[in-house]
From TrEMBL:
Coiled coil: none annotated. One of its GO terms (molecular function) is DNA-binding transcription factor activity. The keyword Disulfide bond does not apply. This is Transcriptional regulator. SUPFAM superfamilies: Homeodomain-like (SSF46689), SIS domain (SSF53697). The keyword Lipid metabolism does not apply. PANTHER family: GLUCOKINASE, HTH-TYPE TRANSCRIPTIONAL REGULATOR HEXR-RELATED. The lineage of its organism: Bacteria, Bacillati, Bacillota, Bacilli, Lactobacillales. GO terms for biological process: carbohydrate derivative metabolic process. Residues 122-263 form the SIS domain. Residues 2-78 form the HTH rpiR-type domain. It comes from the Bacteria.
Length: 286
């Protein structure tokens, strides 16, 4: 299992308020929680034992006893080690191990949060769509570009832009059979919210990849693909872990599409490879 504190952190924003409070209490009182019974924790927090059990299920442990074992396995660190990006003077070997651990944690947590029915439904709708637009801002824009390139090679009529006005204009020409795929880690980006409204106004299907499914934007989208945010280090070089989570979800979606429509996909891939070979062969002088 990934670091239990990372899991709690990533799922906290998706929980009801009482469970959010419980998540915060557990994170800040690890030693106390390990020594407590479920009844004592209920008394200390004012939260019912039923809610505590539900919280445990939400974070993927069988019960309160298993939660205490997971917390004890951390050897009571004040913070998860992955939350520190580097220490001054740290050697390359240690940095490699730390980054590998961090990326593995976010992938494990993302995997556990993916709803397979939502993926399957979106795969079917992508197959039926006449046109698709992928849009994201900042690091999420890189993920939108990745999704665009992959589905383009699979033969889908998909476009990608970072320009809000071009995106809005394109959506204005969409029909109800088309799809708008928006990517936003926090689900609070103004451009994402406005494009979602534009999409709704023309009656197209809207999809949101986000780590925050309780936001107003997420509640308006037709489908939500859940990514994860385990937090970035204080010294941030970029939104790395959230982007890794988004890319993982995109790949699950892409390969689910390939698996379901393999015959059509492989034929499209052959044509795509053939056209790109023209340029490659010219560069080689063939």
């Amino acid at each position: 299992m990934a670091d239990i504190l990372n899991i709690i952190h990533s799922k906290k924003a998706q929980m009801p308020k009482k469970e959010q409070f419980l998540a915060e209490y557990i994170s800040n009182n690890i030693k106390t929680v390990i020594k407590s019974s479920i009844q004592k924790l209920s008394k200390d927090t004012g939260i019912s034992t039923a809610t505590i059990v539900r919280f445990c299920q939400e974070i993927g442990v069988d019960g309160f006893s298993e939660l205490k074992l997971e917390l004890a396995a951390l050897q009571l660190p004040k913070e998860p080690a992955e939350y520190d990006e580097i220490d001054i003077g740290e050697d390359v070997s240690s940095i490699k191990d730390k980054m590998a651990t961090r990326f593995k944690s976010v992938i494990d947590i993302t995997k556990s949060g993916i709803d397979e029915k939502t993926i399957s439904k979106l795969v079917k709708e992508i197959n039926q769509a006449s046109r698709i637009l992928a849009y994201g801002v900042g690091a999420s824009g890189l993920v939108a570009n990745d999704l665009y390139q992959k589905f383009l090679r699979l033969g889908k009529a998909i476009t990608y832009t970072t320009d809000f006005h071009i995106a809005a204009t394109e959506i204005g020409n969409f029909t109800p059979n088309d799809i708008l795929i928006l990517i936003s880690n926090q689900g609070m980006t103004t451009e994402i919210s406005d494009l979602l409204e534009v999409g709704k106004s023309v009656g197209i299907k809207t999809v949101l990849l986000t780590a925050q499914p309780r936001t107003a934007i997420a509640k308006k989208a037709d489908l939500v693909l859940l990514t994860q945010d385990i937090g970035e280090p204080k010294i941030r070089s970029g939104a790395t872990t959230s982007m890794i989570s988004q890319l993982f979800v995109v790949d699950v979606l892409v390969f689910a599409y390939i698996s379901r429509y393999s015959d059509k996909v492989f034929e499209n891939l052959k044509r795509s490879n053939k056209t790109t070979l023209i340029h490659k062969n010219k560069k080689r002088g063939k």
